[in-house]
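Minutes, project check-in
Item: structure for the 222-residue chain
Input as provided by the requester:
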Amino acid sequence: ANTTTIILVLLLGCCFCVAENNDKGGEKSGSTSSGDICCFTTIAQTVGALGEKVANMADKITLLETRLQKSDKEVLELRSLIRGPRVAFSAALRDSGSGDIGPFTTSTPLKYKKIFSNYGNCYNPSTGVFTATVNGVYFFRFSMFNNVSPTPNSVVSLNKNDQLLVSVWDTSGTDSHDMGSNAVVIPLKVGDNVYVELAANRLVFDDGMTYNTFSGFLLFPE
């Protein structure tokens, strides 16, 4: 629309130019014709230069629009990462009472029943198992308090599916009231299970002080 307006203004100026030439020397038709040609040539050159500038401006606008679209996409991706899936939980072994848990004849997942948080509901207190619902890298930590007796007999491990990852144990010495903890950063796929397992014929102690805990959260999705 702006280009059309410019052209119309220039053409109108050409008409005035022609009229002025005719008024000044109507009897000299050759001179008038030469003036007309000169006027049209000037207008054509000016329009051509303006057209080139408009084309350059259009290219710049297109480039800016492309950059803006890319920036908008990057902002959306950043928002997605910031707001991304929220997965985090923390739980303690007992929700009431005190005493030893175990021993069992086979290795058994510990059921941490006192829930502090469970964002995403990926941890199941009925089974003691965390199940990944998002592909990503996760952090897990657990703590163990040994059995309160003269002879310690506690072995606890963190497992991914059927794979033992890390352990905490206390099976020798004459002291009691010992604690330990361990942690990992691991990749998980949707459906992978992570749990803390009490070894066969071992036991741990807990009470209202909640010594034994199991926690984890999603660091970032993949």
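Outcome recorded: The chain has a mean pLDDT of 84.
No further action items on this chain.
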